[in-house]
Amino acid sequence: DTGVSQNPRHKITKRGQNVTFRCDPISEHNRLYWYRQTLGQGPEFLTYFQNEAQLEKSRLLSDRFSAERPKGSFSTLEIQRTEQGDSAMYLCASSSADRQDEQYFGPGTRLTVT
Amino acid sequence: AQKVTQAQTEISVVEKEDVTLDCVYETRDTTYYLFWYKQPPSGELVFLIRRNSFDEQNEISGRYSWNFQKSTSSFNFTITASQVVDSAVYFCALSEWGPYGGSQGNLIFGKGTKLSVKP
User: Fold this and answer.
1) Nearest alpha carbon to residue A10 among A106, A89, A105, A101
2) Residue-wise pLDDT tens digits, A43-59
């Protein structure tokens, strides 16, 4: 059983550009979560899916952010018109139906907006 | 409001010392979950333990032990006989019971405690 994978691992982009990240959860995990972590802070929740349905979104998720999980497997997180404040590590996690509260994290995508 | 406080920003110990990482939480719910995660220098968060609010039994797993006290809203983590490989940032997290059953989904993390274990 492979763990949660995320691509790319690093992304450098110029302010104003759009970026998209991908997360592949542990197979059979029906819940998928996105978090953002800045230096010296704990992860902050952004959104989560149960299968294809996006069940919750944080106030941190501005209109420039959109997440999808079209087939209930992998998920994408898109940031439009990036700003320097978007620079962070974006973490994805997944959990299974029978142990929903045990979230297993991927290695993250580090975004740098110049 | 939900909140997790890890007052210790950094702790440095010498190998084989015991060390306790403090975690204090705030929640208005009577049903919730508490967690500890480890983030080694490689960056990937590693799940260590989950505890629900109905279970105040302390838990021991090898050199790790956890002390949950609802009366003081604390969920402290002790590493016995620390090793260099224990060097990492440790996060305490809280999740409330959600409308869809089980954890609400969003983990609320503390700011973490950076543990350095020197040989």
Assistant:
1) A89
2) 999 999 999 999 888 88
Contact residues on chain A for B47, CB-CB shorter than 8 A: 102-105
CA distance B82 to chain A (A): 23
The string of pLDDT tens digits covering residues B28-47 is 888 889 999 999 988 889 99
B107 interaction partners in chain A (CB closer than 8 Å): 33, 35, 43, 45, 103
Q: What is the pLDDT of residues B72-103, one digit of tens each?
A: 999 999 999 999 999 999 999 998 876 666 66
**B35 contacts B15 by C-beta, under 8 angstroms:** no
In degrees to the nearest 10, what's the CA dihedral of B58, B89, B30, A34?
-130
